[in-house]
Amino acid sequence: MPVRLWRKPLDAEKVKLPKAEIHILKNQCKGCGFCIQFCPKKVLEESEEINARGVHPPKVVDESKCIICSFCTSVCPDFAIFIVEKPCKEGC
Amino acid sequence: METVMAHPFAKYLREAMMPHIWCSGCGNGIILNCFVQAVDELQMDLNKLVVVSGIGCIGRAAGYVNTNSFHTTHGRPIAFATGIKLANPELEVVIISGDGDLFAIGGNHFIHAARRNIGIKVICANNFNYGMTGGQQGPTTPVEALTTTTPYGNIEHPFNLVHLAAASGATYVARWTTLHVRRLTQSIKKLLQKEGFGFIEVVSPCPEIFGRYNKMRTGLEMMEWFRKVSAIENFSDPAKAEITPERIVVGEFVDIAKISYEKLIHEKIAEINEKKMQW
Amino acid sequence: MNQKRVILEGSHFMNGDIACAEGAIAAGCRFFAGYPITPATEIAEHLAQRMLEVGGIYVQMEDEIASMAAVIGASYAGLKAMTATSGPGFSLMQENIGLAVMTEAPCVIVDVMRGGPSTGQPTLPGQQDVMQAKWGSHGDYEIIALAPSSVQEMFNLTIEAFNLSETYRVPAIVLADEVVGHMWEKVAIPPAQKIKIVNRKKANAPSEAYAPFMPDDDLVPPMACFGEGYSFHATGLTHDEHGYPQTSSSEVQQKLVKRLCDKIRKNADKIVRVEEVLLSDADIVVVAYGIVARAALSAVRKARAEGIKAGLLRPITLWPFPENHVAKIAQQTKAIVVPEMNCGQLVREVERAAKETPVTFLSKLGEEPHTPMEIFEAIRRNS
Ligand SMILES: Cc1ncc(C[n+]2csc(CCOP(=O)(O)OP(=O)(O)O)c2C)c(N)n1
Ligand code: SF4
Ligand SMILES: [Mg+2]
Question: What DSSP assignment string belongs to C112-164?
Answer without folding.
Answer: EEEE-STT-EEEEE--TTHHHHHHSSSSS---EEE---SHHHHHHHHHHHHHH
